[in-house]
Design brief:
It is a single chain. The protein is mainly alpha-helical. The chain folds into two domains: 9-131, Rna Polymerase Sigma Factor, Chain: A; 154-206, Arc Repressor Mutant, subunit A, CATH 1.10.10. The protein is built from ten helices and no strands. It has helices at 3-8, 19-24, 28-48, 56-70, 83-103, 111-122, 128-150, 156-167, 172-179, 183-201. Residues 1-16, 107-111 and 124-130 have low confidence and may be disordered.
Length: 206
């Protein structure tokens, strides 16, 4: 095994630390990864919450500025406490502020439209089915970005075992036979990649 391979599967390396821990300690690389991972999802939420396309960039700045200020207070104390859920709450609050500002501008064109959008934001249950479907699509995109970001940290054999079991849905015993591995080793590969993925998504308690 090469030195590079040892590094790619080295779980004590800085790359396997919690993404949120890195962002909290103001590591620029961790913050860039966090924004790259979640900014498209936040932008999609903004569109669904009725934010005008030309205003999305400004609202993204507001959202992530709030994240930077409050990240030290976010804690995953139960399975229901996810970073994505916390981020969604911040986004909804910023979207409400945005619509209220627009509604308070009586001379602005589209004021009535802004008021209607605010009503939709304040009553999210009105389109709950559509929202749940959109969440599935958006979360799939987040997972794809997260997988892409961590892919280079693993040996090909480790990644293939994980992919075969988790993505392709094959039994660990079948994958082990095909790859000339022990079934237990396949399960270890799966667990390692999943744990790293959860760290990248900010879902591992610290």
């Amino acid at each position: 095994m090469t030195a590079g391979a040892n590094h790619r599967d080295g779980w004590a390396t800085s790359t396997s630390r919690s993404l949120l821990a890195g962002a909290r300690s103001e590591q620029p690389a961790a913050w860039v990864r966090l924004v790259n991972l979640y900014a498209p999802l936040v932008a999609a939420w903004c569109r669904r919450l009725g934010v005008a396309e030309q205003d999305i960039a400004d609202l993204l700045q507001d959202v992530f500025a709030a994240v930077a200020r409050s990240l030290g207070r976010f804690r995953k104390e139960s399975p229901e406490d996810t970073f994505r859920g916390w981020l969604a709450t911040i986004t909804r609050n910023k979207a409400r502020d945005y619509h209220r500002r627009r509604a308070d501008q009586p001379a602005a064109a589209g004021g009535t439209e802004a008021t209607q959008r605010l009503a939709q934001v304040l009553d999210p249950e009105a389109t709950q089915a559509d929202a749940e479907l959109a969440d599935e699509v958006e979360m799939s995109a987040v997972l794809q970005r997260a997988l892409s970001q961590i892919r280079g940290e693993f040996q090909e054999r480790t990644w293939q075992a994980f992919w075969s079991v988790v993505v392709e849905g094959r039994a660990a015993a079948d994958v082990a036979a095909a790859m000339n591995m022990q079934a237990g080793a396949v399960r270890v590969c799966k667990s390692r990649v999943l744990m790293r993925l959860r760290r990248e998504l900010g879902d591992v308690p610290e």
